[in-house]
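User: Sequence recovery, please. Input:
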């Protein structure tokens, strides 16, 4: 049985994969159901153009002005419960480069909304960005006390969103494909070895 966040996110990605479109983007404007880019409009700005070619997810061309405090590509995960020891996984096929051809690593986080102040869980691994097209698998084992493992969110669980932090500079990113999977703690897969410290939170 699929985790509800896995099912929700992959349905949104399938819809984006089937979508064909192109054009400029405003902050928080939806590229497709459950997918949007957001940035700080108070201390800076960004000019974004997107393209959704057939059979791919999305290509972004980004130009930044000023010093925005954040610039993120966001994927809604929907409602769900995560327990300590569960593994959240991402498989991505991508290519991209910064101005001048430089490489980078994109930090990611899960933002959880449980009816109070949103809280973030930084993911253990980062998404490598390079001009060479590549497929990567990234894992995060949910830790005791992390925001995404909060058990006070009611029967359906908190609402979660995956955020991919984009560099605040000129950027080209082509996301050919992306999928999400969640494995319960009982499956035994972990992103890092079990120790007395992390088992106690």
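Assistant: Recovered sequence (201 residues):
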């Amino acid at each position: 049985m699929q985790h509800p966040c896995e099912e929700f996110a992959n349905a949104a990605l399938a819809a984006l994969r089937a979508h064909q479109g192109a054009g400029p983007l405003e902050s928080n404007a939806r590229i497709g159901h459950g997918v949007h880019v957001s940035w700080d409009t108070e201390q800076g700005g960004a000019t974004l153009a997107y393209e959704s070619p057939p059979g791919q997810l999305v290509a972004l061309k980004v130009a930044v002005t000023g010093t925005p405090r954040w610039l993120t590509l966001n994927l809604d995960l929907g409602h769900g419960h995560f327990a300590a020891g569960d593994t959240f996984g991402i498989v991505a096929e991508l290519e991209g480069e910064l101005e001048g051809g430089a490489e980078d690593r994109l930090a990611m986080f899960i933002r959880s909304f449980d009816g109070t102040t949103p809280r973030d869980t930084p993911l253990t691994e980062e998404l490598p960005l390079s001009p060479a097209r590549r497929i990567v698998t990234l894992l995060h084992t949910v830790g005791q006390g992390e925001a995404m493992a909060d058990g006070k969110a009611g029967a359906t669980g908190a609402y979660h969103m995956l955020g991919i932090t984009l560099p605040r500079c000129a950027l080209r990113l082509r996301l050919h494909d992306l999928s999400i999977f969640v494995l319960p703690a009982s499956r035994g897969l972990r992103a890092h070895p079990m120790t007395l410290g992390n088992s106690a939170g």
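The domain at 4-184 is CATH 2.60.120.260 (Jelly Rolls).
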